[in-house]
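=== RUN LOG ===
request id: a7f3
mode: sequence -> structure
chains: 1
length: 301
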Amino acid sequence: MIRLGIVDFDTSHVVEFTRRLNRKGAPKDQWVEGATVVLACPGESKIMPERIPGIKKQMEALGVPLVARPADLLGRIDGVLIESQEGGAHWDRARPFLDAGVPCFIDKPFACSTADAKKIVALAARKKVGVFSSSSLRYATELTAFLATVPAPKVLGAVAYGPAPLFEKDARLNPGLYHYGIHVVEILYALMGPGCVRLTCAHERAADVVTGHWRDGRVATLRGTRAGPSAYGFLAFTELGVKPVALGTRNIYRDLLKQIVTFFTTKKAPVEPAVTVEMMAFIEAANKSGANHGSVEKLPL
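=== RESULT ===
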């Protein structure tokens, strides 16, 4: 049984992941075998510090021992889940664990800059330790079923959509699409694969609409919505026709956790770190374009 630790308590993922991995307080069809959360650190948060006390109580009720500092986890776990909502905190949070050879799952957003994303991946490579990040939407049942029949390279183009609220209390934290639009970016990249070289972003209060151009000539669009009813889904253009797909969310935590357990077992990330870095560069370029009236921006890779 793989022993996992969790760091930072400002997201509901802390409790939801623990319920499924420890098989307590979740429906049996949501249980995930192979790993258990054995320790956790409430940590700190610039984004939602008010969440920490409530999540701490829930974790104590689930029987998970708590430690005062992230460093207190070292030597007592086989892998760590970095759960800070703030992507900009992830380099500092992950560094001690990677330095110690502890594989890291880093929750979304992986980082809030291409530079930080590259630093995390480079350190993991130097230390020969695994690092993995993914939105749970990448593993939505309908998306994985579609990709089983139409692999990413055969998708000629796509429109991915979903909610993309901004973190408006402090624009420096999780700016633009890093905050919640990352889910839609992951859907788009699951469909298209890597290779975007330039993009434009139309940014308005109600939505961000990003058009990306891939190296092989394919074009795809992301729509992150902030007004009216919203849902996740995509429209895929393939050689066999046009396929609209709505995405459900009931099993996304369970199916992401299965990938996480596989990662900690095999030490190989289900999403290549280079692809994750490209997604952070995609968002960085989209935010820059949106702030500059839809300028054409190359991905900073």
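=== NOTES ===
The two ends are 38 Å apart (CA to CA).
The mean pLDDT is 97.
=== END ===
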